[in-house]
Amino acid sequence: MVGPLRNTIDINNFDGKSLLENGDGPAQELVNSLQVFETAAASMDSELHPLLVQHLPHLYMCLQYPSTAVRHMAARCVGIMSKIATMETMNIFLEKVLPWLGAIDDNIKQEGAIEALACVMEQLDVGIVPYIVLLVVPVLGRMSDQTDSVRFMATQCFATLIRLMPLEAGIPDPPNMSEELIQLKAKERHFLEQLLDGKKLENYKIPVPINAELRKYQQDGVNWLAFLNKYKLHGILCDDMGLGKTLQSICILAGDHCHRAQEYARSKLAECMPLPSLVVCPPTLTGHWVDEVGKFCSREYLNPLHYTGPPTERIRLQHQVKRHNLIVASYDVVRNDIDFFRNIKFNYCILDEGHVIKNGKTKLSKAVKQLTANYRIILSGTPIQNNVLELWSLFDFLMPGFLGTERQFAARYGKPILASRDARSSSREQEAGVLAMDALHRQVLPFLLRRMKEDVLQDLPPKIIQDYYCTLSLLQVQLYEDFAKSRAKCDVDETVSSAALSEETEKPKLKATGHVFQALQYLRKLCNHPALVLTPQHPEFKSTTEKLAVQNSSLHDIQHAPKLSALKQLLLDCGLGNGSTSESGTESVVAQHRILIFCQLKSMLDIVEHDLLKPHLPSVTYLRLDGSIPPGQRHAIVSRFNNDPSIDVLLLTTHVGGLGLNLTGADTVVFVEHDWNPMRDLQAMDRAHRIGQKRVVNVYRLITRGTLEEKIMGLQKFKMNIANTVISQENSSLQSMGTDQLLDLFTLDKEGKAEKADTSTSGKASMKSILENLSDLWDQEQYDSEYSLENFMHSLK
């Protein structure tokens, strides 16, 4: 039975090369011998077991035999031995074989060791529990191995071990365990406690300056990301919206880039070589990411490349990649340029709103899974745990094989969970569903971090305000530039300049003053949507509509209004508009965010309703509250929204929605356009944040970059990242603006940066005289009837 085993394998002088040269004959003999060993050993009398134990060293040597068939049979024999002589087999296994997992230069040893471990686990079943702590960490290290076979088996072993982990706590060490192994066990247990309980994580000191004070839960999040980094793990950060997932990611990105650079300078090891990182996000967020990186971290540490634009522009950018250590690109761009991206080894690959790859069969998911990176992180604000069947594709990106193949996953978790949700399910099916869900949660929990706003209330201000910058569409830029060349612009220049020159106190003519205001109104409407200004009276109306028709487009196409695209993305991020059930048929259990959408103008609300919600997000339910609704009926709409959680959105005008209503049913506020009087916007925000609101309110403001809108926001000292901004009468009106500043409002900044001109005293006086006739710029009338721009249109020629 053991003749070939003893004759072929020399335990003192094992030489794989010479065995390979001997051909298949000896290998086949060895396989036959091992098959007999496996069958006979299982049924031998226990008195003969010591004889079998003598052959353990030979079996372990067979695990590094060049032939796969020999290694496979040897692993099965080790499995049988672990069952009949557990203590002896495991002691030698832990001491001699387990370290082979770390032999990254010898695939054969790695494959032999991981296959033997899989067989031992299969045979011992719950008997493996006393050894779990010693096995988990080496196996974990191989879950990101370059060799597919090693990675796949390691991931499956880890999945089984982590499910048995809770049983380990009260079990004593096995007898005859060496002192070194007992000490190692204590050290590894400390690691596992951190893995399973985020509160026990070590504090990570960010090695680079970050221009933000991290809240406690954000530091905890960075600690968790640093823990994953330390042990070469991957995970999903799925904090609630507005809790700062971007900031936490930037901290670990900048910190790890700095750490690698220092290590490389010290050791010159290839594995510490500085590598670029990649952030993939929806197209409306690429600019936001680049801005956020610039805001929180200096270019010295993170130098982002905004990889966007048409194919020719992207080819030009490809040559610049080497000069940057962070690339920000949208999902579609990565999918289209995957041949370029797949050849780059990244340090971090972060998928923002990563639930877009929940369906593993799409081209997008397949492309993203071809990216190679040391660390893979998914950011997602949607409650992933509820749509459990979507987890498979996400983990297939993070740790391929961790949840088995898609078919295994469906059989083990999908079927029982779906069956238990069926109204006609039996109590046994329901129990099986609960057990499957529990097992799945236990398996994925170490790699998910989710904090809800309710959990971290004490760390949060009552409002979190974020500005979303949109870039003007080509059509809007064209109209903006047409305005700059028009007679209207000359009139404005003349009016403002002549007022600045005339020192007399006599007031300029009302018509001229009206002109300034109408020009501001015109540009402001243009920032929101070109359809608001391109009316039939507009000189460019006919030529523009004809041009769009040729391109199979129209004025109401969402692509011409970046604010609508940004609003659509925000609603999707809030979990709205995807339909109430996902493709896999699982229902989302958690109540989603509910949203107030504020516009200044009733006509802009019409556009949001008819160009965005109805055609693009038909599943979103909404109510509407504007000046056309009689005051007596407004309260009924408010109470219906507050009391009916199935209504997702309330559309309001700032004027109507900003007055004394109590809208605590919502936890998210979006300003599509802004009031020039900051007090009005503050009041509107506070609609959602009243007594009775138990949640933190997220406020998003959509601002078009480089335009009058961004400049007004800047001039108004309207940065309210703190909850209570004090706005004095002095700075809350256009009257405090200088001439240069006022003229600057009418120009479009190409770079998208609003430059602030100095306020000159003569300018102040002149502006005061111009604007005095508009006794109150935000007069009631502005909201009730929209200014007629018809006469103004003629001066655009």
From TrEMBL:
GO terms for molecular function: ATP binding; ATP hydrolysis activity; DNA binding; helicase activity; TBP-class protein binding. SMART domains: DEXDc (SM00487), HELICc (SM00490). The keyword Nucleotide-binding applies. Keywords: ATP-binding, DNA-binding, Helicase, Hydrolase, Nucleotide-binding, Nucleus, Repeat. It is found in: Nucleus. It holds the Pfam family SNF2-rel_dom. InterPro entries: ARM-like (IPR011989), ARM-type_fold (IPR016024), Helicase_ATP-bd (IPR014001), Helicase_C-like (IPR001650), Mot1 (IPR044972), Mot1_ATP-bd (IPR044078), P-loop_NTPase (IPR027417), SNF2-like_sf (IPR038718). This is B-TFIID TATA-box binding protein associated factor 1. It comes from Myotis myotis.
